[in-house]
# Entry
Amino acid sequence: MKKTITILLCVAFAASILTACSSNAPSNEPEVQQKSVSTIPNDDTSFKLCYTQSDSLNPYECEAQNNQIISQLVFEGLFSIDDSYKASCSIAEKYEYPNSTTLRVTIPNGLSFSDGTSLTADDITYSFRSAVKSSYWGSSLSGISSCYAVSSTVVDFQLEYPNSYAHNLLIFPIISESSETNDYPIGSGRYYFAEENEGIVLKASDKSGFSPYFTTIHLENIPASDSIDNAVNIGSVSLIFRDLSRDSSKRIDSNYKLININNLVYIGINNKKGLGANSYIRKAINSAVDRDVLANSAYAGFAKTASSVFNPDFELSSTEIFQAAADTNAAKQAMTQSGLLDFSLSLLVNGTNSDRVACAKLIKQQLEAVGFHVNLSIADTYENYEKRIQKEDFDLYLGEIKVTPDMSLQHFFSSKGSAHFGINPEKSISAEEYNKYINGETELGNFLISFSEEIPFIPILYRQGMICFSKEMNGDMQGTGTDCFKNIENWYFKSE
# Structure
């Protein structure tokens, strides 16, 4: 354990002192690929995306998911993150942490938006203020209290608590202040909004290093989710994003690629009363759960089992504290150690989500296999489900939360957190050790040990999403959860 903790500390220390972003090193891959497809002409007609015409195209005002996905092409963030949640500079040139609760970001001189106007620190502060007020981005920025421009190229972000991964949060779109008076919002991304033949299109930017085959992308008004799925199946649009939040087994006839979206499915436990107040019972439930079965059956394999409290692809998850398979002997032993004789409890689930109901039914079976008696309580609406959780009217509940890219656990360990119900942050040993860890007062290993002893909640799996794309598409699709079009410059349609 000491050796593991030392390695983890080295990783965390390296992450906290890494303050500059270097340019991407030259690669021979694009040159080789260019040679192999050099006869393919530019394409300004074939690539089509769906959008909701009745909704805004401003990333801070739109509500439709397809409009948010389009914004990935039009806008850039200060940073981008890959599928392992490792950050790299986009608009930012470098960053540093002058103190534990300040993140300073520097952008290069001479940056411009797609309309040629200058991109400065004022545009970044404007974008941040817009982001924190938006329904889509606001919750992910709750760990940042404010930001202000130090100069035209330097911005300071004030953090709510020490966080050496706070720069992972700065992926919100940077939008020009002048967008308020323009027909279309203005960004600095790979494409920009334009009008063509009385319709809205995306035109490829002439920014250095970006030379796609798809010089124009056409937008098709398809607002309904069912229609969107069908559109990619029949080829009416070229690519869609599915978050697989429900109906994960629904048939998709197009090609697809799974991507990480950092949505944690977990069992919430009432630590304050009932069986859940007994730590041995919490350990028994954790041991009885078969994460592999839940990921492969209830979520059709579109998920990764949680072997730690962090996303399995994140660098701090290298220490496994949970088994993927159930350990029925350990579960029964913990039940005996609890000193209890009655093992009856309830499991609350949102009945409007078919995947989650299927998962809850499997959990019920797994718990009953070791001796629990489980009453499955299926809420008829999400509102009723949410009310019961907020009132802490549950023994167990099956929940899901989108974890922020910095992997903060304040959702569970802060009294303001959206998933703290059933946990008393002021009395939780795990919460205490986690706060010590983020304040630099203890090692990560100590927090993980305390969590495995207390089990205040049970991480089960991290769901995945998918990008679905035309079978005629070529180009080694490398989209991620935050950039479905990661290497769009290499995409093209097969020749007839």
Summary: The chain has 13 helices and 19 strands. Residues 1-18, 22-37 have pLDDT under 50 and may be disordered. The two ends are 59 Å apart (CA to CA). The first strand starts at residue 48 and ends at 51.
